């Protein structure tokens, strides 16, 4: 390779809100005020898909799915192709470029530049995984390969920011959901408690969610039947443009 | 180069709101309702910094500043270094990665992957430019090299989106400004008319701008002295997180 040539790879942080045994995250801060409506002994957590390296370099550490860009594909195509080897990509509802990781010494050997992606899988999906691959709570990552831990933190920060000004949660939620389920998703993705009433009020006012008119069957705890909602749109959009900045129709 | 190796380059769309002779943009839609407080015969436009290629490929077309990543630098460092060759980088108040342009055939010859950046220069800066380099209104681009026109449109879309949910306009505005000047910047950057009163109300409520307590000397048209404002912060932040999504203190 000459002075300027590099290898380009994609790396995708695929996130899903998943239920883990409570002991995995016991004592974690930020969830103490959360009323848990999950089965006893389970907690909802934002999880990331990782595979364990069988060979050196860094044998035994955990990596994000990804790999080298081929001559005949662009990066988005490459990221989806690489994901298909780890998880059924039809279950990835949202995929976006994060940023490029390009420190000269980020991996040993020939220089590799990584385009990092954020991928989101809905709560109800349960993709088949190869034997070297597992979901890990983002709050308790195992020993990560190279700079992959930094990529995960970057992806989580982007997700939390977009939860606050877009409808991106459509890609983490089932098609139809109660506010209790949606709150579970927001609490897990943000890492702190969110009030159900406020969440319902803000998302309804911004037309992010729409009532379906149906109600859910009460759970074991009984109580009133809960309203069932859906997302108004299933494409990413900014949900609160400044009123003053909208073009005149 | 082997099957996987590529050349990586940065390309930066540097934007500034500038005043152009009115005939450059006469008849452009979207500005008809705008009360122009500029000197007669001038209009404010979002402009982008371009240089003209003296040699083939595509001799005579206009390109974004940028160039090859070196072995000893990361992409952000490289983008700033390349800009320094075209414009004093101390005048670039904001620089952020947009996305990666990686279509296999985007340029002739060995494969080049481009990391695109958005750069912003404040209204009052007047950087020295080399002789092959000029500011062009984004609404009337000359013949552009390769996919550089697409990069400019992508950068403009990102800027317009961020104007609606962040304080990014700090990087286009002078340190101290009247609402009339700030409106000039928003109208030019968005490409449509914005009401001064609404703009002042929304930006004040969200604590994006703060009155300095000073007033500006009335212009030739006379009238009441205008209040002078400054930006509350000069680091990028999201200005409207959902109230329901903020962590409890």
How would you characterize this protein structure?
Two copies of one chain form a homodimer. The relative contact order of chain A is 0.18. Chain A has five helices and nine strands. Chain A has 249 residues and is of the alpha+beta class. In chain A, the strands form two sheets. In chain A, strands 1, 2, 3, 4, 5, 6 and 7 form a seven-stranded mixed beta sheet that branches. The model of chain A is unreliable at 25-36 (pLDDT under 50). The first copy, chain A, folds into two domains: 8-18 and 42-163, Nucleoside Triphosphate Pyrophosphohydrolase, CATH 3.90.79; 169-243, Winged helix-like DNA-binding domain superfamily/Winged helix DNA-binding domain (Arc Repressor Mutant, subunit A, Orthogonal Bundle), CATH 1.10.10.10. Chains A, B: InterPro entries: NUDIX_hydrolase-like_dom_sf, NUDIX_hydrolase_dom, WH-like_DNA-bd_sf, WH_DNA-bd_sf, WHD_NrtR. Chains A, B: GO terms for molecular function: hydrolase activity. Chains A, B: Keywords: Hydrolase.
How do the strands and helices of this protein lay out in sequence?
2 copies of one chain form a homodimer.
Chain A: E1 5-21, H1 22-25, E2 42-52, E3 62-63, E4 66-68, H2 75-84, E5 94-101, E6 112-120, E7 133-137, H3 148-165, H4 179-190, H5 196-205, E8 209-216, E9 226-231
Parallel strand pairs in A: 1-6
Antiparallel strand pairs in A: 1-2, 1-4, 2-3, 2-7, 5-6, 8-9
């Amino acid at each position: 390779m000459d002075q300027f040539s590099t290898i380009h790879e994609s790396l995708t942080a695929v996130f899903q809100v998943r239920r883990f045994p409570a002991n995995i995250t016991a004592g974690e801060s930020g969830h103490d005020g959360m009323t848990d409506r999950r089965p006893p002994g389970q907690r909802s957590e934002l999880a990331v898909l990782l595979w364990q390296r069988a060979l050196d370099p860094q044998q035994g550490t955990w990596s994000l799915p990804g790999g080298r860009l081929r001559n005949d594909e662009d990066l988005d195509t490459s990221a989806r192709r690489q994901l298909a080897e780890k998880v059924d990509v039809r279950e990835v509802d949202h995929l976006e470029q994060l940023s490029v990781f390009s420190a000269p010494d980020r991996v040993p050997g020939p220089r590799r530049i990584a385009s990092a992606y954020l991928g989101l899988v809905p709560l109800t999906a349960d993709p088949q995984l190869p034997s070297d691959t597992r979901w890990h709570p983002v709050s308790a990552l195992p020993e990560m390969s190279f700079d992959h831990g930094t990529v995960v933190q970057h992806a989580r920060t982007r997700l939390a920011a977009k939860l606050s000004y877009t409808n991106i949660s459509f890609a983490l939620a089932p098609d139809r959901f109660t506010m209790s389920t949606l709150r579970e998703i927001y609490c897990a993705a943000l890492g702190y408690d969110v009030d159900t009433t406020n969440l319902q009020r803000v998302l309804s006012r911004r037309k992010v969610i729409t009532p379906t008119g149906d109600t859910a069957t009460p759970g074991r705890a009984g109580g009133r039947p809960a309203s069932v909602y859906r997302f108004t749109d299933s494409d990413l959009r900014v949900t609160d443009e400044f009123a003053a900045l909208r073009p005149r129709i």
